[in-house]
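Hey, I'm writing a tutorial for new members on how sequence and structure tokens pair up, and I'd like a real worked example in the thread rather than a made-up one. If someone can provide the structure for the chain below, I'll link this post from the tutorial.
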Amino acid sequence: MEKLRVKLGDRSYDILISTNWLSQLGKTVKGIIPREKILIVTDDRVGNLYGDEALESLRAEDLNAEIMVLPHGEDNKNLATVERIYNFLVEYNYARGSTLVALGGGVVGDITGFAAATYMRGINYIQVPTSLMAMVDSSVGGKTGVNHPLGKNLIGSFYQPKLVFTDTVLLETLAPEEFRSGMAEVIKYGIIRDADFFELIEDKMESLIKGDVELLGKVIRRCCEIKAEVVSADERESGLRAILNFGHTVGHAIEALTNYRKYRHGEAVAIGMLAAARIAVQMKMFSEMETQRLWKVITRGNLPYQISNLDPEDIMERMKKDKKARMEYVRFALPSRIGETEILDDVPGEIVLEVLKTMTD
């Protein structure tokens, strides 16, 4: 078992990474959370695969656990779904010592974390990520929230889990398109923080896509190490943590404009990373050669790199509504070289628009 620590004082917690150990969930969490009611929150896809095993693991340790199954999909990441969780918690008398367990991908993790952050002003929750996207990114760091029709994750809270419990064997049942989507976040970590890691992804992309378990474990660990370092230094995104938004400014706008149905999150982020790289080239802070390296690894990961059937002006307008906007400016995380990223608040709009036009078919 691999163990990493997210160091946040009295809110610190561990990220545990192993293979084929979901059956150990109950033994692992029983000393971390109060022995009060536990609710597993999952979706219909993950629940059918792993819900019973997770529930039985908790109950085997005499933990009072139940399960709630939500519809899958990004378009269910909204306040109405959170209200369903609240209603269950109230109806069945869940109190402040209760715990939520998020068993699923990024959508389930974000929704469950937000419900935990706001129910009775905060109860415990645990992340059990089941997608590559969640394992390398969304389960770590305490960003919780839901979407609004005008923007992604506009409603949310910073609220840390008590534990991240990762079982890499769960990736075996992940749909190929969801795995590819998660690879966008993996690529992101190489660009923003670790040139050697990016080179590893370049060299081993085919092995990763084929599901090399040992290699995936190393990749997941490195992504979690980077995120833990960044979050420990800047929990609430007042500075350094903003580099994690590389690719997300354009990506979130694309997702919102297409009602979260045309592009998976990682697909939109892949397009957004390439857009950010090209903006950085135009601003003479990133090289064309490095942009080509990024483009090649995105295409080898079978991720999109063009925007279809969207007006660049609409994308610009939607970016201004993003939670990362600063008054009339849009905040961008832009690469200065592979492995290093800068945060700029004053990127000229004409450069952004010019780049978007070159990427829109």
